[in-house]
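This entry is passed on directly below:
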Amino acid sequence: MEINDAGELFQQYLLAEKGLSLQTVNSYMNDLKQFFSYNKKERVEELEVDDLEDFLHYQNNIQRLISTVLRRISSIRMFYLFLKREGYYKGDIPEIVPPKKAETLPNCLSVEEVDMLLNTPNMKSASGIRDRAMLEVMYASGLRVSELLSLEKAKVNLTKGIITIKGKGAKERKVPIGDFAIEYVIKYIDEVRSHNPGKGSKYLFLNRQGKPLSRVYFFKQIKKYALEAGIMENISPHTLRHCFATHLIENGAELRAVQEMLGHANLATTQIYTHVSSKRIISAYDLYMKGK
C-alpha cells in the first residue's frame, strides 16, 4: 500500500472512529507529513521499527521543542498501531522512551574513550571475543544496531575489507571496516563462531544457543563495558555510530561520503555531525586558552 493512501485511511479513522475534532486530526496529519518527508518511504511495506527512533533523533538534533517532539512520537506511534490493527504493517510497534529534555547534539566520545571502551571486553572468554568484534565493526562502519545484529556472514568480505549492509527500506550499501575490525572478526570466526551450535547460521554474530543476539543484550553489554572503562557519559549502541561519523568529519572526510556510509536519506541528518565536530574543536580550544 502507498504511504499516502495509508495516511488518508488513518485520517478517516481519526475522524470517523475516534471522533476527533478537525483541528486535532490536522495536527496528527501534520506530524505524519513531517515523518513522511524525513523518512522518504513510499510504501507501508517499507516501514521499519527503527524509523521512528531515527526520526526522534533528527527532531532532537534540529532542536524542536520537547512538547512538539513528544506529540509527534505519539502521533506516529498511533499511525503504526492503526496499520498493525488493519493488517497493513507486519513489523513490531516502536517502543520509544520519550526524551526528558531536548538533546541538541548527540553524545560523542573522544578517540581515547572509544579505545578504552573497545579494549574492555575480556578476550579470554568467548563472549568477550565476540563482543570486541561487534564493537570494532560498529565503530569502524557506523552501523545501526539493527544492521549489526542482522549482519550476514556472507556479506562480510574480509579480503577486501568491505561489508554489504541491507539498511532501511531494504537498500543495500557497501561500507569499509578496516584492518582492526577485520582482525577481530577473523579471531571471532576462527576461535568462537566455528564452535558455536549455530555455526551454520547465515548471521555473523550469535549467542551461545546459536541465535542472533537481541538489541536488549547488546545495549546492556555496552552499558556494562562503559562502566568498566570508567566512561561516565550516558551511552548506547547508537553512540558508536555518532563517534564513527564525528571522528570521520574531524579527520577531513567529505560530508556526502559520510552520508552514504551511514545510509542517511537526508544530508541534513548527516550535517548534525559537523556541529558535534565544531563543538568538540571549540571545547579543546577553550581548554588550551585557559592554560595559557
Observations:
- The first strand starts at residue 156 and ends at 157.
- Residues 267-290 form the longest helix (24 residues).
- The radius of gyration is 21 Å.
- The beta strands are 156-157, 162-166, 172-176.
